[in-house]
Specification:
The complex is a heterodimer.
Chain A lengths: L2 E3 L4 E5 L4 E3 L2 E3 L5 E8 L6 E7 L6 E3 L2 E6 L4 E6 L8 E9 L6 E2 L3 E6 L1
Parallel strand pairs in A: 2-12
Antiparallel strand pairs in A: 1-4, 3-9, 5-6, 5-10, 7-8, 8-9, 10-11, 10-12
Chain B lengths: L3 E4 L2 E4 L5 E7 L5 E8 L3 E8 L6 E2 L6 E5 L5 E5 L8 E8 L9 E2 L3 E5 L1
Parallel strand pairs in B: 2-11
Antiparallel strand pairs in B: 1-3, 3-8, 4-5, 4-9, 5-6, 7-8, 9-10, 9-11
Classes of the chains: A mainly beta, B mainly beta.
Chain lengths: 114, 114
């Protein structure tokens, strides 16, 4: 069975600090997909990024970056120069090849204080 | 730009009552999903519909039924509500149901069962 662990339940930082959200996954599949979703206070989950198991290249999108390491089964998310608008709950998730059945982590509540 | 629309947004039920949560998407997506979100547990898949006319159980289907009314609409029914079904319910859709696809979520229904 697949599993995603986000050990950080809550993180609180001051604006402009860098912050890393950890995600560790478990799977026996060789083909799988990893995702990050953002849930702002409005409640609706928004897709941020996906990665397939054959692509370990890190990705940067503006202030957001993702570090995928198969050796440690981790897919961490870093926000550089955090802003108040980054305050949200962030979910890491995994889907196995062949079916879109996401397994979510518990989520990390990120609060950016002005 | 409605995307995925869920109704109602809030609902309070007494134990044993029944109700149906409605979901509609206007993106011409083939696959639709129902998740529940509980504190500390992330989102868990209740049921999904890979395409019109098909439905299948997810991780936590007990106590629920679903109907894929047409390509646009996917409803979730609680026949006899229990306090354990107090949760936030999210409907989602994806284009084809592939494991690498991103999901589009509705804004959620907060359900309390007393």
């Amino acid at each position: 069975a697949q599993k995603v662990t986000q050990a950080q339940t809550e993180i609180s930082v001051v604006e402009k600090e860098d912050v890393t959200l950890d995600c560790v996954y478990e799977t026996r599949d060789t083909t799988y997909y990893l995702f990050w979703y953002k849930q702002p206070p409005s409640g609706e989950l928004v897709f941020l990024i996906r990665r397939n198991s054959f692509d370990e290249q890190n990705e940067i999108s503006g202030r957001y970056s993702w570090n995928f390491q198969k050796s440690t089964s981790s897919f961490n998310f870093t926000i550089t120069a955090s802003q108040v608008v980054d305050s949200a709950v962030y979910f890491c998730a995994i889907a196995r090849g062949g079916a879109q059945k996401l397994v979510f982590g518990q989520g990390t509540r990120l609060t950016i204080n002005p | 730009n409605a995307g995925v629309t869920q109704t109602p947004k809030f609902q309070v039920l007494k134990t044993g009552q029944s109700m149906t949560l409605q979901c509609a998407q206007d993106m011409n997506h083939n696959s639709m999903y129902w998740y529940r979100q509980d504190p500390g547990m992330g989102l868990r898949l209740i049921y999904y519909s890979a395409s019109e006319g098909t439905t299948d159980k997810g991780e936590v289907p007990n106590g629920y039924n679903v109907s894929r009314l047409n390509k646009r609409e996917f409803s979730l029914r609680l026949e006899s509500a229990a306090p354990s079904q107090t949760s936030v319910y999210f409907c989602a859709s994806s284009e084809w149901g592939g494991p690498n696809e991103k999901l589009f979520f509705g804004s959620g229904t907060q359900l309390s069962v007393l």
